[in-house]
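Researcher: Here's my situation. A collaborator sent me these components and asked whether they could plausibly form a single complex. I don't have experimental data yet, so a predicted model of the whole assembly would be a useful starting point for our discussion.
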Amino acid sequence: MTITTTTAARKQRLFDPKLLLGILVVAALLVVSLFTGVYDIFGNTDGGEMFAITRIPRTIALVLAGAAMAMCGLVMQLLTQNRFVEPTTTGTTEWAGLGMLTVMITFPTAGLNLRMIGAIAFAFVGTMIFFLFLRRVTLRFSLIVPIIGIMLGAVVSSISTFVALQTNMLQSLGVWFAGSFTSVLRGQYELLWIVAAVGVVVFLAADRFTVAGLGEDIATNVGVNYNRVIFLGTGLIAIATGVVTVVVGNLPFLGLIVPNLVSMVRGDDLRSNLSWVCLTGIAIVTVCDLFGRLVIMPFEVPVSVILGIFGSVVFIALLLRQRRRG
Amino acid sequence: MAESTRTAETVSHPGSGALSAPGAARRYWLVLTALALVGGLSGFGLLAWDNPMPVGSRGFWLIANLRTENLIVMAVVAFCQTLATVSFQTVTNNRIITPSIMGFESLYVAIQTASVYFLGAAGLAMLQGVPQFILQVLLMVGFALLLYGWLLSGRYGNLHVMLLIGIITGGGLGSVSAFMQRLLTPSEFDLLAARLFGSVSNADADYLPIAIPLCLVAGIALWWKARSLNVLALGKDVAQNLGLRHRTQTMQVLFLVSILMAVSTSLVGPMTFFGFLAATLAYQFAGTYDHRYIFPVALLTGFSVLTLAYFVMNHIFYAQGVVSIIIELVGGSVFLIVILRKGRL
């Protein structure tokens, strides 16, 4: 009896009328994104074609990248049991950049696919190192985790800087790392669809991640193969981060602030929160990108810059709030 | 941990103290002498190597004088970074973080960018020189004070929240700078870029008369506080139990650290892992908990590392530009090894 009521309650929680409202808001934002730009798509004869070449891919990229990075943050926070962890505070993004750089140097003619594989492989190794480290090292304070992660990222990025300097790629490195949707065109962004597949897998495995988030002992007790779930989670995070880093660049703090905001409002059920996390991620990225497009029109500010400013302010507010509660 | 057990074992020794284990004092002074020799030799090497004039002649000293400035800058940087890092690690009770991550570097970049952005190339020329240096140091120390005063005082004061907020503020400031840099004209950006790549050879000799007294005052104050630092290193609870006003002492030490870091960063620009590298090596060399013994070792280690790196890079590999990056790389790798070997934070 109780089981059926909880399932019913859960169903209700999953298909919330508020969710519909959220979807509508995000859809409106995306429409605004479609019709924002310097080129006048209505006044010119080739307007329709330009629309298809630049605006639609850009908006799709916003959706995919925003949802993916927000989800990565959520999964990472669950698996490490730490609220302040995400790809940019664990060095995953820096590892992906190093992987991309390595491929660029060893195979100068490599296409997007090969670069992406390099980025994913390095991101996977880097995240695994971080997770292993978290399991081996006894931590006294949870806030030490992001500090160590950021320093780890600094080490990796100093290696990247050194390699880039030796091979005269320093300038291009800066351009790659600055996440921006400016160069997202038809024929160059399609790889991002891989991220959609990652999203589906996260949805399917959501409950396993939630259980794994309770810790190795509890997870094993209820019959979940803890190591396999960790492995799966790391793999998904690495794929999403790698793909987004190669196609778009670095999107700082997104994975950190979105899950925290959502769980502040809704509590900690991964499966029902997931759609909200995706929506909020998309909304924040879209707003930041729109702002970046409009603020110095006809030029653009990379979305990573806007996100960096906005994200750090939100992050600090979150920290202060947590401090109040102890 | 190792230090405390050692002292526990040797309490009965008549000369119990920082270096009471048999042979410890001798080992310490040997290490100190060796470091001084290495530092002195590589420093002298930097002055004398490739000098066409015979040692001791008037021409030799003329050329050496030109190079002395760099050497003094290195000494100042080593002094600032090592003392600041050791004190910072003691206060935070954590030997794997450095004060550089606290946003000083991003603040330096942000100040430079903002001055170009708001004042333009002409205004920048006006701000050049000593007033700009003083302003920068003041702003950095003010920023640090604001951060500590706000986050460490009051009922919710928490060191780790302060650290993390410092880092994140640094990241946010970096983004603000990037935003402003996007809006600069290319010629203004060129002007700025020349200032952002700090290195020892770029430091202006005019700053030294201000930088050196500042460092000395902060350094002497830290030396004077060494006994408090020894107690602070035991952790908050023990320190309070022993009658130390933990929060006040922490704030005072952090203030001194911020002066040292501000001077170093304003002088030569970012050096993230240098202080960490020197401090980690110094703990190994010194083998004691007493800051009066650690400080000199750390200072000499830092100076030796810096001069040796410059000497090797300048005269053996002819790669002057990458010195600071090499130091960062080695420092970063040591950081990783230390974390993995330690197993506990």
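Model: Some features of this prediction you could bring to your collaborator: The interface with chain A takes residues 94, 96-97, 101, 156, 158, 160-161, 163-165, 167-169, 171-172, 174-176, 178-179, 182-183, 272-273, 321-322, 325-326, 328-329, 332-333, 335-336, 339-340, 342-345 of chain B (CB under 8 Å). Chain B has a mean pLDDT of 77.
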